[in-house]
Design a protein that fits this description.
The longest helix has 14 residues, at 8-21. The chain is of the alpha+beta class. It has six helices and ten strands, in the order αααββββββββββααα. The protein has one domain (8-182): Double-stranded beta-helix (4-Layer Sandwich), CATH 3.60.130.30. It has helices at 8-21, 23-36, 38-51, 171-177, 184-187, 201-213, and strands spanning 72-77, 93-103, 106-108, 113-115, 124-126, 134-135, 138-140, 143-145, 151-153, 161-168.
C-alpha cells in the first residue's frame, strides 16, 4: 500500500481486473493442483464456492473463468525476501514467478532442498505454513530462457524484475467456510459465526453486524 494505491470503487475495479487478467494462469495452475492433490483441491474448492466474493463473468470467447480454488492471494512485487514461515496457512500453497531475472532459487532448509530451476513459468506446491522457505537473491536481467533453452528478450515496454504470485487459503478461512453453501458469503456479507461455547457469542456477533452496517 502507498499513496498511489487505488481506494474505494477504483480499488474494487482494479481487483476485479486482476482476477480477469490472471484467469487463464489460475485455471492452468488449478488443473495442476487438482491432478496432483485431488483431496486438497476438493476441500479448497468447497471453501471457494462458499466464500468467494467476486464473481467474474467469462469474457466472450476467452474459454476460461476464475473458478478457484483459492480465496487468498499475494503478489510479491520485485522484492527480496528473507527466510520465513507463512503462519496460518491452511495446507498447500502454490507459488510461481514471472518476469525477467536470474537467480531466485527456492530454498527449504528443513527438507534440505533447493529448487535451483525456479524460473518464470515454474510452479512449486508446498506446505508454506509448515516449512520455512526463502527465495534466494535474484538479479534483474534483460532476458530469460524458455523451458527449451530458447532466449526470450525483455520487451522494451516492460520493466525487468521478478514478480512472485502466491495462491493459498488461510486456515481460519477454510474453517469459516466449512459447511456453507455455494455463494453463501456473497448473499450474506455480514454473516458472523458466533463463538462456540460462549453464551455472549450471539450478542458479540450482533454488535459486529451493527458496526459493519454503519
Amino acid at each position: 500500500m502507498n499513496k498511489k494505491t487505488p481506494i474505494g470503487r477504483r480499488r474494487f475495479k482494479e481487483v476485479v481486473n486482476y482476477y480477469i487478467s490472471s484467469g487463464p494462469i489460475t485455471s492452468y495452475v488449478a488443473g495442476l493442483f487438482k491432478v496432483g492433490f485431488p483431496e486438497a483441491y476438493a476441500e479448497y474448492q468447497e471453501a471457494f464456492e462458499a466464500g468467494r466474493w467476486i464473481w467474474v463473468n467469462e469474457p466472450e470467447g476467452a474459454g476460461w473463468e476464475d473458478d478457484g480454488p483459492w480465496l487468498n492471494r499475494a503478489v510479491v512485487w520485485k522484492l527480496q525476501l528473507g527466510m520465513h514461515l507463512d503462519k496460518g496457512d491452511g495446507g498447500l500453497t502454490v507459488t510461481f514467478p514471472v518476469g525477467f531475472f536470474t537467480g531466485g532459487a527456492m530454498e527449504l532448509p528443513q527438507l534440505g532442498t533447493i529448487f535451483d530451476r525456479y524460473f518464470a513459468g515454474n510452479v512449486i506446491i508446498t506446505y508454506a505454513g509448515q516449512f520455512a522457505h526463502t527465495v534466494q537473491d535474484w538479479k534483474i536481467s534483460d532476458h530469460r530462457l524458455a523451458a527449451d533453452g530458447t532466449r526470450i528478450d525483455c520487451p522494451e515496454d516492460i520493466l525487468p524484475g521478478r514478480v512472485g504470485s502466491v495462491y493459498f487459503n488461510k486456515q481460519n478461512v477454510l474453517r469459516f467456510c466449512q459447511g456453507k453453501t455455494r455463494g453463501f458469503f456473497k448473499a450474506n456479507p455480514l454473516h458472523v459465526d458466533p463463538p462456540q461455547g460462549k453464551k455472549k457469542g450471539a450478542n458479540q456477533s450482533e454488535k459486529h453486524r451493527r458496526r459493519w452496517a454503519q
